[in-house]
Amino acid sequence: MNNQQRNPSVAVIGAGMSGILMAIKLREAGITDISILEKADKVGGTWRENTYPGVACDVPAHMYTYSFKGNSHWSHRFALGDEIQSYFEGVASENGLAGKIRFNESLDQCHFRGGQWHLTTSKGAQLVVDFVVAATGILHHPAYPDIKGLDSFNGEMWHTAQWNHDVDLRGKRVGVIGTGSTACQVISEISKLDCDLTVFQRTPQWLISVPDKHYSEQDKTALKGKQRKLAALSRRYAFIMRNTFSKAVTGGKLQHALISWAAKRNLRKSVRDPELRAKLTPDYSVGCKRLIISSTFYDAIQRDNVYLETMAIQSIAEQGIVTVDGAAKELDVIILATGFSPFNFMRPMDLRGRNGVSIDETWAKKAQAYRSLCIPGFPNFFLMLGPNSPIGNYSVIAMSEVQSAYILKLIELWKQGELPAVEATQEAKESYNAYLRAGMSKTAWVGGCQSWYLDGDGDPAMWPYSWDQWVKEHQTPVLDDFVHEAPAELEPLRPAA
Ligand code: NAP
Predict the structure, then answer these.
(1) 355 pLDDT tier (thresholds 50, 70, 90)
(2) Would the pLDDT of 178 be above 70?
(3) Does the keyword rRNA processing apply (predicted)?
(4) Is ligand 1 within 6 A of the CB of residue 281?
């Protein structure tokens, strides 16, 4: 069947970094029937949600942009959250998307019937579309710690992704649970306040210090309107990140040795007190948990008003936190820097593919996809930044650009009539995931630690190969990996427009 004449209708779910990108790329490809649903009242995804003090991106800002839109306004090498939020708002607005997005409207139901997707939104609207792209992000479901008595605390408590800006921390006794990337940024910032800060660390982390260059007005002017210069800067940073951090965690022995040396030296040089240094020294390989880029955390943890508690938490009580040695730390505020549940993806959406099979049933054992974005049984449904898409310490924007181009190639195959529907076969998914598993043993993520990279079976849900390999494998869709017979259910397709 040839769909050449058809202008497919596409629903993009989410107007964060990858949703904005997908909408722009769909339009560039001449696809105009696009509905964009966004649960919140503005674009930005993670950068809209995370407003905690110190929020910044630890990927250099000049490579944390779309390849088609460099930005001369960054104030620092590691851009602050509000600047990144403004960048995405600016790109959405310049591309005329802001007026097209259905804000405050999330997707509740998404069912595949009769060859199309039937959507019901939180406002009760019904849409019928050919394709759905879930650009719903990875780290957006706050993970609350499973600590006894969590709800019994009488003071103020919040997760870092839901920062309570009404509470002034000055003069307060504050406890932060967690020492991940988020916690390190929060602690660096709030430790400067006149507060009494206790950091509850369960597992120490390896940190690399990269100086955070400040861009002067002169620096910014030199780059203003110079897209080629900005693109060159972006490529330079990307080259460095790929050949240092990313290689270090995916089997590059020399890079791993260098990064390990740098992390250990950083700790040795930054923390003079041997007792504190011992508390901060991990017992697992560097890069096993996500490497933290911070030039401020070690200074922060050594401030006079900051105390590092390494005794495990037993419970949370009305007055504060009780550790397993029975000691109670009285607190006014508890901040949960406890990360996210990364395996929910587009859920809790009621997503059902062919024959009414739900995503919960499909992923009951494991969240897996073909090339991170196609799920057998869910034709014409794509998941951006799905299972195994994260690339260690690299820009998710670059990954999404490769994915969006690949999705467009698949839609084009559908338009050409090469595929009756874009649905990866079960075999292709299995073999792709076997290929991923085969690459994991040489990565740093199996270095004997717990992290959000690991799924319930302890398998890293990451891309274990190089960036070049990622790009290469998304160049040309392998037709044999897709279903070629149109199941009865795929009929009838809408008549040609
Ligand atoms: P995370 O890396 O998952 O860290 C969660 C922290 O909470 C860990 O220290 C963990 O300890 C602790 N924790 C969780 N449950 C606990 C419990 N029951 N008791 C005690 N401690 C508990 O989360 P995150 O810091 O929010 O970072 C998540 C990811 O977001 C990062 O890896 C990164 O990819 C991204 N991020 C990026 C940036 C950036 O600059 N680009 C900034 C922030 C976040 P254990 O280690 O013992 O589990």
Answers:
(1) very high
(2) yes
(3) no
(4) no
Determine the Cα–Cα distance for residues 443 and 463; give it in Å rounded to an integer: 10
Answer yes or no: are the C-beta atoms of 221 and 414 closer than 8 Å.
no
Instruction: Report which ligand 1 atom has the smallest distance to the Cα of 450.
Output: 48
With 0-12 / 13-18 / 19 or more C-beta atoms within 10 angstroms meaning exposed / middle / buried, residue 225 is exposed
| pLDDT for res 174 | 98
Do residue 293 and residue 175 come from a single domain? yes
Among residues 314, 336, 358, the one where a domain terminates is: 336
Q: What is the pLDDT of residue 490?
A: 52
Of 50, 36, 162, which Cα lies nearest the Cα of 105? Answer: 36
Cβ of 271 less than 6 Å from ligand 1: no
Biggest alpha carbon distance in the chain? 74
Average pLDDT over residues 479-491: 78
- 93 CB near ligand 1 (under 6 Å): no
Strands 10-13 and 320-323: unpaired
Looking from the CA of 221 toward its CB, the CA atoms found within 13 Å total: 3
Whether omega before 8 lies within 30 degrees of 0, making that bond cis, reads no
Of 339, 361, 353, the residue nearest 381 (C-alpha): 353
Weakest-pLDDT range from 263-272, 387-396, 398-407: 387-396
Residues 462 and 435 in one domain: yes
Q: For residue range 438-456, list pLDDT tens digits in order.
A: 999 999 999 889 999 999 9
User: Which ranges constitute the DSSP H helices of 153-203?
Assistant: 181-190
- Probe target for ligand 1 pocket from 292, 452, 454, with the most ligand atoms within 8 Å of CB: 452
CATH code for the domain of 85: 3.50.50.60
Positive or negative: CA dihedral 479, 482, 488, 491:
negative
C-alpha 123 – ligand 1 centre gap (Å): 34
Averaged pLDDT for residues 476-489: 86
What is the amino acid identity at position 218? Q
Query: Which residues contact residue 355 at a Cβ distance below 8 angstroms, ignoring those fewer than 6 apart?
Result: 377, 489
**Domain end point (choices 315, 336, 357):** 336
Which residue(s) pair with 60 in the sheet?
none
CA dist 414 and 53 (Å) reads: 46
Residue 400 CA to residue 408 CA, distance in Å, equals 12
- Which residue type, as a one-letter code, is found at position 8? P
Angle between helices 396-415 and 17-28 (to 10 degrees): 40
- Give, in order, the Cα–Cα distances in Å from 315 to each of 144, 320, 328, 497: 14, 9, 9, 62
Q: Are strands 207-208 and 292-293 parallel, antiparallel or unpaired?
A: parallel
pLDDT value of position 496? 38
| Interatomic CA distance for residues 374 and 383, integer angstroms | 7
